[in-house]
Queue: 2 jobs
Job 1
Amino acid sequence: MIEFQNVHKTYRVAGRDIPALHPTNLSVEDGQVFGLIGHSGAGKSTLLRLINRLEAPSGGKIIVDGEDVTAFNANHLRRFRQQVGMIFQHFNLLASKTVADNVALPLTLAGELSRKEIDARVSELLARVGLSEHAKKYPAQLSGGQKQRVGIARALATKPKILLCDEATSALDPQTTASVLQLLAEINRELKLTIVLITHEMDVIRRVCDRVAVMDAGKIVEEGPVADVFLHPQHPTTKRFVQEDEQIDENEQRDDFAHVPGRIVRLTFQGDSTYAPLLGTVARETGVDYSILAGRIDRIKDTPYGQLTLAVTGGDMEAAFARFTAADVHMEVLR
Amino acid sequence: MDALSFFANVDWAEIWLATIDTMIMLFGSLLFTVLLGLPLGVLLFLCGPRQLFEQKGVYALLSFVVNVLRSLPFIILLIVMIPFTVLITGTSLGVAGAIPPLVVGATPFFARLVETALREVDRGIIEATQSMGATTRQIIMNALLPEARPGIFAAITVTAITLVSYTAMAGVVGAGGLGDLAIRFGYQRFQTDVMVVTVVLLLILVQVLQSVGDKLVVHFSRK
């Protein structure tokens, strides 16, 4: 478990103190995929680097598996870092070393295994990320997605308990992003690895994370299970991220719906209720009519969800709303 | 007068000896320049602004010494160095007497080039290596130097070529070599033929150094 207790970080730039992270409390459970989302400069990168102390906190305690990371001496910190893998937006592979040597680097640095054991571990890791036939190539000969796979294999070399992902998919195209995220999800499942990732794309959070924290101006402004935060965003920053992901412009939508008659409601289905034939049943029983104005049916990690915006006319409208609320559906009246 | 008779008076044995002297001075001083300049360059880099061991005072001092040595004309350095040269080689004359001033003249230059080559290494590489739990020594040996290798080979090439022109000046202290031959015979005795031969040989030497250097840079760039 990773725990932040009143952790804050201030940079001193040209004689002035610039707060990068306001006092923050946070806990990440073992085996969780924890997402931090925020725009650039929101402090998410600082927060991530505090975990393996690439950044030193200005105050507060960071407890990992019961040990206070902030109290480690240099030696202890090095051993701790070997237990925390990290991958990067620009991969940060050594151009002068082959794929196999890049993956072997953390093991060579740790100096605990023989050359033979390292070779065996490297081939196992390269097979894991599907790059066995590229072992002798140099990073410049690989595509972006392949480079990130090398980065992942390298980060896993020392069998860490925690994996930190610094905008790991931001430099990749959508298709490659999907395959890298899938690999991260597999690793999380199979190796029971705790993953902390930072991103500015809600889509990344939606695909792989269990919990999410939304950051704005050095503060966590909203935190919770991804489904809750994603489907019922509270803070303006969160709402903006969700809208960006769904490519919805609220003003445009309001104008579009202006001439639509009746009441407008938004229904959110989650889990099994997503596939229940609720709309038809309610319409028949209460005599209301509905038209679907907007909608989306998708998945949040492994949970299906649906979100429909309806215009409801005629019949017993109050009864219909009561039925929706009674069912396992979240209803929001927009007009 | 055909081409061959133009070179009829050239003493080829003398040319041969001078070429050997130039080679010894060049590679002897290059070896010591790299041995001393590489650690100095690494130190400059590490102490520099926003680097691993940022040390404003140390950096300013090293930087100042390097700048002073670099701004001194080599011909002056040759003379200023004489007592020191005698102290370490026992003589201020000949090839042995030329190597210490050559090394002192080229090392600061080479160290600056090494510093620049190291700065070219992406900071992300250092961060990634740190995140693996590397010691500073490991970061230098396993990440910084391998990544900067193309730049360091380019720096060695430029330094070697600079040393070729420095060896020519070393004739002042009786060091011998091709440059010395060109001055004594070609210039002072008006033997244009010797001048042409030495200049052509120096030209070939520089060409060979540059193309070998370029090949090494390309080889280690891994692009």
Job 2
Amino acid sequence: MKSATIEVSLRLPCEGENAADLPAMVELLRRQGVAERRIQVLSREPLAAFPASRSHMSKLGMAGALFGFCGAITGLVVMTLDYRVHTGGMPLIASFPLGVITYEMTLLSSILAMLLTLFINARLGPARRMAGHPELDYGEAILSVHCEDRLQAQQVRELLARLDPGPMATKVRQ
Amino acid sequence: MLNSDSSTNVRPRWAMIVDLNACTGCSACVVACRAENNIPITGPDEAAYNGTIQWMRIERNWKGRDRDFRVENRPVNCQQCDDAPCEPVCPVLATYTNAEGVSVQVYNRCVGTRYCGLNCPYQARFFNWFDYAWPSPLDVQLNPDVSIRTRGIMEKCSFCIQRINAAERQAEREKRPLQADEIQPACAQSCPAQALIFGDIHQPGGRFSQAWKDPGLETLLPEVGTRPKVRYARRVATPRSVLAAAPETPVAEVEA
Amino acid sequence: MSAVISPAPHVSGVKTAADALLQPMRYTSRAYRRMTLLLLMVIGWAMFCFIYQAMVGLGVTGLRRPVFWGFFITDFVFWIGISHAGTLISAILRLTNATWRYPVTRAAEAITVFALMIGGLFPMVHLGRPWFFYWLAPYPTERMIWPNFRSPLEWDFFAISTYLTASTLYLYLPMLPDLALARDRSRGWRHRLYRFLSMSWQGTQVQWRRLELAIQLMAAVVIGIAVSVHTIVSWDFAMSVVPSWHSTIFGPYFVAGAIFSGIAALIVIMAILRRVYHLEAYLQPKHFSNLGKLLLTMTLLWGYFVTAEMITTWYGNLPDEMGTFWSKVSGHYAWLFWTMVLCNFIIPFPLLAIRKLRTIGGTVIASCTILVGMWLERFIIVVPGAASQRLSFNRWYGYYPHWTEISISLATLCAMTLLYMLFTKVFPIISIWELGATKHSAPAAVEE
């Protein structure tokens, strides 16, 4: 979020008998016109109630593998041709050793591609300022809505107060 | 796919024939090699613990037992293999077969993994376990044409490549082809029995290249498939004892 | 100390499992500090030995022609083998969705990273000129000379650097949520460290889904890497022309041996963690029993491989290979060979096969003997093979390790212990979120 936003957050139990129906609450907020990207459910553990979304991670992993495969072969051939040793009649570009190194580079590149995908998809990175909820504990979740302005924040607060009387916090974040 | 040795049939290809029948095991070649190639003297303690360096050694193989035995002296140096097992295993390309067929060791490039030493079936490669010293007056006889090896690198017989290079440069300066017997490595030069014969396989019509093709020549450990450029000549004759054991039947009788 | 990890602020008096698992990070005992000092001294001595060896020459070791490789390569293969504990086991357990794995995976993955760091040093330690180790890397020099891609040692370079990268990521990614927890419960330099390492992990559901997917996908790739790494290590030997090394069985044989010793290392380390950090509630007898069953499988597999290797050599009766064979079975190295069989099979088999004996104590004893046995196995492969030369003139059974080799080998054990000790002080050694911390209450044994 580039401009200053007001975060309204609600702390709820997500396990046991009093567990809140978080997906339903998210759905309600969305129907009230809150954009989906502004709604976040934070938890210390993955919540089974939210289904897995589609991801291109495996495809990008494959793309990374392909990149590593081609890159390794190109690099190895170029390097070998660049310094032509006398091989005493053996082929200068040896296929099997090339394959061994290419295999390693393929898998490495695939892993790095998946890592990159993860960091971009999950918006991870060292530079971002923390919009943290250190009070969050196991067995509970925080429903957080980043509002555009005070008016929307007020609406969201009222909406959430009707849903659950739990502790609510409002913070202005940069 | 690609072969970088495109000029192999023009350049000479150096090789050696060892006449086992002539070798007396006198070890002059071992000493000459040590002097020529600045091979360090490691001392008695190291010698007792397998720490000697000998580019050329005499393997004394005893056959038979008690009083009924034969001794065979076999000079063994680097066999200068065409398919050298030591070469592909070096991670830094410190050893390769050069354009004239000599398997060379690049001292400056060697990092000392010692993999080549393990992969040499002839154990013709030696490692510099220490920085060795030449106590005076031995330092005076050091050959200025050969570099002194530091600790931590491999070394081995180079067919006296400094002599080969010097002769080739000389011939080039004088704008003439290299003569057949111009080059002698130190071992061959010093052999009193002339058991070590050095020459060029590619020399057309040369005596050495003719002798090299003799099917009677043997190689050491042919089963490893290294295709060495050192071949051994050994007279194969039926032992007198076997002749004596043959039945004394006249040939004519059998034919009839 | 300014850096404190505090209990959750809102729950006063009630300790959750998450707090219990952060406990080892909060408090260091005097014994811990003394142990650290001791280990540092041993490692310092080993570093002196290494520098001495580099300055004087490798002649200070017991290595001589034709035994060009000895203790260092044994250590190399051994530690690379230990590194298969982690990633491979944890990846297999993850992919098969074995739910008992939760308290075990992090400990295993950490072993991988540290064992690789240690093992990966040995190709440098054993070099004749270790200061030129970087020549193995393909970097553009002014002469544009590149490394030799045909050399199995060059494959090692690529394989080990790939494996180290992959296994570090595989340790790190599942740790992200726990690092975020530590970030939220700490102050001072620790807070800054965890804030950086947790990569602004918040725990949104998108993050969770993507992380779970990434771990799952990486587990599959990491298995491919781990198997290839030890196969390539075995190819250092198998690709040579040395009679007993040049063997097709070496790839799978080494991989099986690596997993074997890896599980053993994991069991030993788990037992120590359980004892030292009072993790009895998490590392339960059933975990040891389950790992014991895996270890039993690997014992049998190892026995199968050794039998297959030995019997084919013996039946073929080729003179070159029989030299090595007899030096192992009845010759110079026989006492090591039979100790290895005792340690790897005869002692652990009953301990692991009989259910009553497959207790924590039983599995730990079996694991300790297996670790010794597997080190001996690596030695038995390296040295007798090199010593038994084809030309009988060159055979030499005189190799004995000298003090630098022994010191450096012992120091690897200390380095492993030290790295692991430091790790447990900075990172939660049991995956808190995977364990499902709410489902467990804190064990009573934990003291403040």
